[in-house]
Fold each of these.
Amino acid sequence: MAKLSAPLFTAEGKENGMIDLDPEVFGIEPNLDVLHQVITAQLAGARVGSASTKTRSEVRGGGKKPWAQKGLGRARHGSSRSPIWAGGGVAHGPKPRKYGQRTPKKMKRLALRSALSARASESAVRVVDSIDWTTPKTKDAASLLNAIGATTKTLIVLGASEAVARKSLRNLENVVLTMPGQVTPYDVLWSDVVVFTTDTLLGADGTNAFAVSDDDFVREAVDAGEKE
């Protein structure tokens, strides 16, 4: 298996050599079938499923027969809330439901490694030394991304201890932030560049950036963490 590496940058955006990438994570042959199935499950899990319509039994009114059964030359009707009436109930309309699909963790793990390997093969992986900024500044974050060549859609994996960096980066356009254990194949393939810090890449903070979540959709959990 070929040796893989990615450019390493300082928190100020200066290139600081190369860093080795794990070939078991970044050097496998992407499994497109598994990728498709896992991403489909993730997008299904992202659906709210709150669409709702009223049936004829739930629409207000319609208890009285509109007119006599016979003698008027009109079609027979028993209720003005019938689906064929304006303002009536909806036949076979949507009701609140869950669209989530259960995906085995082995498949999610393979899909994540396939997506990361695809990005690594395109030289689209960057690594930044632990970002130890003292105060959050969006201007500094934008300068860093420009320096490392992440000027388009970018996925950034930050550790729990890098709160200042998270506040600096979260307002930038076309930037998605995630945490170790919440990296998803969809986010990796959505991005043009994937950025790790040395902590999230090597697991120095005791977490694993390549672990998979129990949920098929984890973006809400990430957003909630950023708002704290």
Amino acid sequence: MRLPKFQYRIPQTIAEAVKIMAGTGPTGQFVAGGTDLYPNMKRRQQMPKTVISVMRLDELNQITGTGSQGLRIGASVTLTDICENAIINHDYPVIAQATRTISTPLLRNMGTIGGNLLLDTRCNYYDQNYEWRKGINFCLKKDGDICWVAPGSSKCWAVQSSDLVPVMVAIGAKLRFASTLGERVVDAAGLYNDDGIEYLRKRTDELLVSIELPPTNGWRASYQKLRRRGAFDFPVLGVAAYIKQERGVVTDAKVVLGGIAPSPVDIKEAATALIGKPLNSDQIRAAAEAAYVKARPLDNTDFVYQWRKQMARQFTLRALKELAG
């Protein structure tokens, strides 16, 4: 498969990058590592006429701050650099833990944290070459008018398949965007939309500049991933668990599921089962049961979807048991 023709621009500053994007309109696309965009272009799923590289912008390649103050990670920092950064490994080990599960070492050398957070939604009927998709008369997400996962639905059910998204939602990270209209900062939980096509609450002219992690301040988090192979594969279930404790009692908690819906699923009932109680086996089982009840995986990724629902219980147990020590 070959890339379609496009114009390639290399801005020197953020201001120049967003100005180019404003001039190109919907036919432009930012790119950093390109591990998601370029395969999509080869499959004719995305066809930008102008590709704007942000890989060399200094501000997007920096990691600044500490665990006690909060950490700012530039959107073009590679996944390998995330895995190897001493501050992230010491103060935010869940970020390094989740990042190490992404793809392969070679692709982590190219892929960026920003790219993983803005990853296109995936589906067995969508992530095929052009000829395959044409053979089934395409799908609702691209060029067609029917969702082959749920033919009676007017909604696209392609799933959010990022490993870092459920983690960022669970820990309360914020994302900073820039455009010619200025900057805005949004909570990670507010960025993702429950729709396989319009999966981001982000304007096309906006550039993701940085990810801002909250001060550690006593909280801990864990990430568990289900996939067929021990490397390379996208998650077909990801569980991010977050807790904060005082005097042996959980004062705050979140359990967020990824890989089963167009957006990360915050299981509020699991948090309710934990908050105000000690993190013991009874509460962990109650939270895991809540995750199982609320999990609604669809038949558009690897493995039988009923089994993936069962695994929501088991992987929540693993994540919370890790936090219980």
Amino acid sequence: MLDIQKLKKNSLSEALTCSLSVSDSRGEEIAKLVPIGNWALNDRNLLYLFASWRKTFNRFFLTQFETSAQSTASYLKNLSIAQSNRIFFAIYLGDNLIGHMGLSNIVKEEALTDNFIRGKSGGHSDLMYFAEKTLLTWAFEELKVKTITGIVMSNNFMAMSLHERFGFEIEERHHLKKIVSKNSTTLEKCDEIEATEKFYLDIIKLHKSSFLASLNI
């Protein structure tokens, strides 16, 4: 399996040399997936945008808290860059940072989708489809995984519809209860009688064969 730590570069120029090219159906490049490394920790614009997008889409995360550029830098350093089983990509449209996506829990033949967010509009109308296609293709071909799992709130309709286009199917559905503490709000799996939310936590899964079928391969 590919050593993903080698993709986490110290400078943006180095990171660009190992970025993943996102192409449309005609094979024309429409964006790049640039792997996050130490270079990102000194990019104030990136840290600000990542924090802002996390705040905007907080409701679709199991743990909801106040974000900042500082907390984002700490997260990237300790929970992404330092983790050998995790890879995070910034989505660039030219020089314009528009979103991010990644994979975590990469072990043997499995991986987990991680932090899919489009924070800005612009570019190809189906850019996120082609970005996810690029990431999934890379995971199956380069990381040699056979299954990819996702964790999605059932009310996150855009994310679910995007994943379904590649053949993701719901494997499990869980009720959720909200737990509020001083600095954060957490949604936890629970029995139906304890549920406080009307939506669910869906565990979705994609097998390589289903992915290839979705691409008519």
